[in-house]
Amino acid sequence: MASTPNASSWFDQARFIPPDAIFALTAKYVADTFPQKVNLGQGTYRDANGQPWVLPSVNKAREQLLANGLNHEYLPILGLADFRNATAKLVLGSDLYSQRQSQVATCQSLSGTGSLHLAGLLLRACHGQPKVYIPSPTWSNHHQVFGSLGFPCESFKYYDPETRDLDVESYYSMLDNAEPNSIVIIHACAHNPTGCDPSKEQWKEIARRMKERQLFPLFDSAYLGFNSGNLDEDAYPIRLFIGEMEMEAGVCVSFAKNMGLYGNDDPKSPTPPGFGAKIASQVLGSEELKQMWYADMVTMSDRIRSMRKALYDHLIALETPGTWDHLIRQSGMFGFLGLSPEVVVKLREQYHVYMADNSRVSIAGLNEGNVEYVARSIAEVLKGELRS
Ligand SMILES: Cc1ncc(COP(=O)(O)O)c(C=O)c1O
């Protein structure tokens, strides 16, 4: 679309939406010529050499698809049926899926973000515009997606910077005082950005209070299996709410992280794009590929966990000021270091270590070759702060 200089434009009233800060940070990192630079900003998995990783299971699925003669016909409006059914079975587990199959409705979307948007459209069509309760902090797109659909969004305190842990009492108190028939956005696991998830006991309490208050759980499930390496473990709260508690729920699933399918083919048609769905469907439909994929998720989550531990060990060995237990309590790709914005700027400008301004780091950016450098940089900046 083009606009005419100096004339009034259709787009004059368009609201300015600032670009995502993480993409701007990545651009700065790319432009940095320092050889030891480290990017802990962007949330994409990196292997032990800091490179993108094509999962062996995904590679094999792609080879099989190509060997079988892949076509690019339109998919049905709801998406690839095998993919939708296999995803529902994966998320619910075989037993719950077979009990509830007739009550499950699925629709393919453009990854996790697209599914949140579609879920919002559906809930709006069914229920007008109820309140949407969103944890604070959260993944920034939650506010963009639900705010742009016109829902009144309300943040609730999820994280306590003092304890560097989940603030479960604030969570409970929000639930007890929430307007009935509202929506609550729930990170199914690996809370982004804090890396702090409720325990099983706390999940039970959250579910009980939500049911009592007639709140609708909308699960954002972008890290199933990627968090602990065990998909059943990571799907625990979803199965608890739907199975044991017999609640209705929405589940927005992404295979971006757990299958490493970050980029999408360009959808030029009004129907959903096929390639990623066909890959996921191929993996989920073959016992051999599924077992390979389970092993791939263990590879990714183990590497992330070992890097958390390595960062922690180096920080302790370097006698870095502060406490660092929170690093190993958190799980998933992200975590908060708990550094001030000034320290984050020094790390970036003096040490070429890039992270979000709130000191959220993507642990996947660490590897054997850079973790000590990162710890040393943090230790030096914090010791310098103490001296000044
Ligand atoms: C909490 C959360 N939800 C959803 C997504 C969805 O991502 P995508 O649209 O790439 O599948 C992400 C990705 O970063 C995320 O962190």
From TrEMBL:
Name the cofactor(s). Answer: pyridoxal 5'-phosphate
User: Where does the Aminotransferase class I/classII large domain lie?
Assistant: 36-263, 273-378
Q: Which domain of life is it from?
A: Eukaryota
Q: Quote the SUPFAM superfamilies the UniProt record gives.
A: PLP-dependent transferases
Transferase in keyword set? yes
InterPro entries in UniProt: Aminotransferase_I/II_large (IPR004839), Asp_trans (IPR000796), PyrdxlP-dep_Trfase (IPR015424), PyrdxlP-dep_Trfase_major (IPR015421), PyrdxlP-dep_Trfase_small (IPR015422)
**Pfam families xref list:** Aminotran_1_2
Give UniProt keywords alphabetically.
Aminotransferase, Pyridoxal phosphate, Transferase
Q: What class of enzyme is it?
A: transferase
Q: A GO biological process this protein is involved in?
A: aspartate biosynthetic process
Q: Name one GO cellular component term.
A: cytosol
The EC designation for this entry is 2.6.1.1
**What does the record give under GO molecular function?**
L-aspartate:2-oxoglutarate aminotransferase activity; pyridoxal phosphate binding
As for family, the record states: Belongs to the class-I pyridoxal-phosphate-dependent aminotransferase family.
Subunit-structure text? Homodimer.
The protein depicted here goes by the name aspartate transaminase
Instruction: Please tell me the species this chain comes from.
Output: Penicillium cosmopolitanum
